[in-house]
Specification:
repeat; five-stranded mixed β-sheet; actin-binding; Immunoglobulin-like; Filamin; 4 domains; Actin-binding Protein, T-fimbrin, domain 1; alpha+beta; 9 helices; four-stranded antiparallel β-sheet; Filamin/ABP280_repeat-like
């Protein structure tokens, strides 16, 4: 609110953003007219030299600490320098189209960067569960194997923390927004755009090693596995696991390949556990501590053996039926047993209901189906005795009506063995 009122910091900011140096200006500001001169100089430079359209703001608004207009100016600078002037790597080259707004450019780039089964339409609630952010980080640094496909919307904060940490450590993307803000339904659109605008220019920098496949809610008394991948064969890992009371948890190490190690441990008591990983470079003698990973051990049924078939984080067509098959193995229900909940996301009249399941006689198999009834996103959650087995986020879109497609020609009425049978397909009605 007060940083720009003398005009000096505004001039310096514009110099850094534009890469150009200002000429003469008032370096020692005492009087109001000196403030106005400096601010006017900066605003005129933005309009005349940088060709940035400024609306409803003048030097007096900044000198008089008009916070709303000052924030509007800052947002205009972000749009121009962080998004509009960004170097885009879109394969079609369509982002060079000057007619697209900064918001449209960023959204188009994200759609091209993200897997086809994920739908992104906004800079607000689409990013609330951390899954899109995890997929974006994975796309920018594929060998990280982020594992976002296994992430659950119910663990949005942990997923977002993980994705933002990876983006910071490996891509140099600064956390310009707090994870708690990003998962909020009331998240500020401009803050999300500002944060995401760093990704098009991000460069992947591999570290000495990284953890992956870490189970965030291991079960007490059940063996739990995670992996650590090193940058090359000359790097060796060291793992220490601490329990809730600070006691050391026994961990068994197994080398799967030259650069991949598997670690197995078993939580003894419920509560927070901390996994501390250090990697040592034998060739250089360097060592590096990886980010500490916290998991929370819980008491409960080992649901990792439950198999779910027919569901994925994907995009389907309205009216498309998804057949679901679930095998619970030898598990015995103690509470509610197997349940599948369906919840529409982002709808004013959002509904949540239990999916009907049919148990195959004399087996561990349950069957059901779900049909996408309208556009938008739907969360489907599989639970066993109130424990989340897996969650899926499915987007529904309109498809073509193939029933209106017509096939014509003699080849459909009669044909001779060994001879071509010709016919036409009329697609104009579609």
């Amino acid at each position: 609110e007060t940083d720009f009122e003398e005009g000096l910091k505004l001039i310096r900011l514009v110099e850094v953003l534009s890469g150009k140096s200002f000429g003469r200006h008032n370096k020692k500001v005492i009087f109001r007219h000196q403030k106005l001169e400096n601010i006017s100089l900066a605003l005129q430079f933005l309009e005349n030299e940088e060709h940035i359209k400024l609306v409803n703001i003048d030097s007096s608004a900044i000198a008089d600490r008009n916070l709303k207009l000052i924030l509007g100016l800052v947002w205009t600078l972000i749009l121009h320098y962080s998004i509009s002037k960004q170097v885009w790597d879109h394969p079609s080259g369509q982002l060079g189209n000057g007619e697209m707004s900064a918001k449209e450019k960023l959204l188009t780039w994200l759609r091209a960067k993200l897997p086809v089964e994920l739908s992104v339409t906004n800079f607000t609630f689409d990013w609330n569960d951390g899954i899109l952010l995890g997929a974006l980080v994975d796309s920018c640094a594929p060998d990280l194997e982020v594992g976002w496909r296994k992430w659950l919307p119910s663990q949005a904060l942990q997923s977002t923390l993980t994705a933002m940490r990876l983006a910071s450590d490996y891509l140099g993307v600064t956390a310009l927004i707090e994870p708690e803000e990003l998962i909020s339904p009331a998240v500020d659109e401009k803050s999300v755009m500002t944060y995401l605008s760093q990704f098009p220019g991000a460069k992947y920098t591999p570290l000495l090693g990284r953890l992956h496949d870490v189970v965030l809610t291991p079960v007490v008394g059940v063996s739990t596995i995670f992996k650590l991948q090193t940058r090359d064969a000359m790097i060796v890992p060291e793992i220490i696991i601490k329990g809730p009371n600070g006691s050391s948890i026994r961990c068994i190490q197994r080398q799967l390949s030259e650069t991949v190690y598997e670690f197995r441990y078993q939580p003894e008591t419920p509560g927070e556990h901390e996994i501390m990983a250090t990697v040592h470079d034998i060739a250089s003698g360097d060592s590096a501590k990886l980010a500490r990973t916290k998991v929370v051990a819980v008491e409960g049924t080992d649901i990792s053996s439950i198999l779910v078939d027919g569901l994925n984080n994907e995009t389907v067509i309205v009216g498309q039926r998804k057949d679901i098959v679930i095998d619970i193995g030898n598990l015995i229900p103690m509470k509610n047993g197997l349940e599948v909940t369906v919840e529409e996301i982002g709808k004013v009249d959002r509904s949540k209901y239990l999916l009907s399941l049919e148990h195959e006689r004399n087996s561990h198999i349950y069957r059901g189906f779900w049909t996408a009834e309208r556009l938008g996103k739907t969360k489907i959650c599989v639970l066993f005795d109130e424990n989340v087995v897996c969650e899926y986020l499915i987007s529904a879109r309109h498809g073509e009506d193939i029933t209106k497609c017509r096939a014509l020609g003699e080849g459909l009425e009669r044909a001779v063995v060994g001879m071509p049978a010709k016919f036409l397909v009329d697609m104009k009605v579609m």
